[in-house]
Design a protein that fits this description.
Bound molecules: adenosine-5'-diphosphate, magnesium ion
Distance between the termini: 34 Å
Shape: globular
Number of helices: 9
Mean pLDDT: 88
Order of helices and strands: HEEEHEEHEHHHEHEHEEH
Strand content: 15-25%
Largest sheet: 6 strands, mixed
Helix content: 25-40%
Strand order of the largest sheet: 6-7-8-3-9-10
Low-confidence stretches: 8-27
Radius of gyration: 18 Å
Number of strands: 10
Length: 257
């Protein structure tokens, strides 16, 4: 069952920007926006197995980061903690500057529903809803006008398919719908866990290009977990998750993977 709050978003509750009258051309807008995401000393263990150890990570507003790492190292665990699908044992998580652990469950769900979008490897479209209803879901959950669902379907190349059902689509088309849904409510942060893992290489390349374009269009920050060096190379930063935590992967190191 897909986690409803991560399928969904927005408008921002706070205005972080200074008055346009006070701004000069040398001002960097990001200096006034909180980080899209901050993980402070985040730790998670399953039984005896310690998966994440005091992990620190900061993602600026609008930044696009790829995370790579061996299977089983904890990439999905990290995304699941951010999305609230699992709870950390210790540490703090701030989404768009708001400390999630300071909120009660209902408030944390509302925050995540508004601020996050999630693209899953296995798409997770709802089979009994048509494409328009699937994409409108986060808008509905956030009490936002549903017109944008139609626009998002068109943006991912599926205009005219609104009344089709997921079973009528190819894998690539299903992932297009999932991207439209993840960004429909204009989330501040998009999380994607191996979004092309179930697609053939040509379709995967198309989908990644589309995903990146749509993220840029929405001015969302993004964390993409991928095994593909080519996919990672298109990110602003590439990080490698190991037992020692998240560390930058240089273009040279990336090229040899
Ligand atoms: N819900 C869970 N219960 C127990 N162990 C889990 C659970 N989720 C993940 N793990 C374990 O945590 C480790 C990291 O898993 P995961 O985050 O899925 O790795 P990755 O996505 O990097 O392949 C693995 O050893 C996995 O078996
Ligand atoms: Mg995984």
């Amino acid at each position: 069952m897909p986690p409803w709050h991560v399928l969904a978003t927005f408008p921002p509750r706070h205005c972080y920007l200074p008055s346009p009258l006070l701004m000069t051309s040398s001002m960097n807008l990001n200096e006034y926006a909180p980080a899209a995401l901050e993980c402070r000393q985040l730790s998670k263990r399953y039984g005896e197995r310690s998966v994440l150890r005091a992990l620190d990570f900061r993602l600026e507003a609008g930044e696009y980061v790829a995370i790579m790492g061996e299977s089983g190292v904890g990439k999905s665990t990290l995304l699941n903690l951010i999305a609230g699908l699992d709870a950390p044992d210790s540490g703090a998580l701030l989404i768009d500057g708001e400390p999630v652990d300071a909120l009660d469950d209902a408030e944390a769900t509302r925050l995540r529903r508004a601020k996050l979008g999630f693209v899953f490897q296995a798409f997770h479209l709802l089979p009994h809803l048509d494409l328009l209803q699937n994409v409108a879901l986060p808008l509905k959950l956030n009490g936002m006008p549903e017109q944008r669902a139609r626009d998002m379907l068109a943006a991912v190349g599926l205009a005219g398919r609104e009344r089709d059902f997921p079973r009528q689509l190819s894998g690539g088309e299903m992932q297009r719908v999932a991207i439209a849904r993840a960004l429909a409510h204009r989330p501040r942060l998009l999380l994607a866990d191996e979004p092309t893992g179930n697609l053939d290489p040509d379709t995967a390349a198309d989908i990644l290009q589309l995903l990146k374009a749509e993220i840029r269009d929405s001015q969302a920050a993004a964390v993409i977990v991928t095994h593909s060096p080519a996919a990672a190379a298109s990110a602003d930063r590439v990080l490698l998750l190991t037992r020692d935590g998240l560390n930058a992967l240089s273009p040279t190191a990336l090229a040899t993977r």
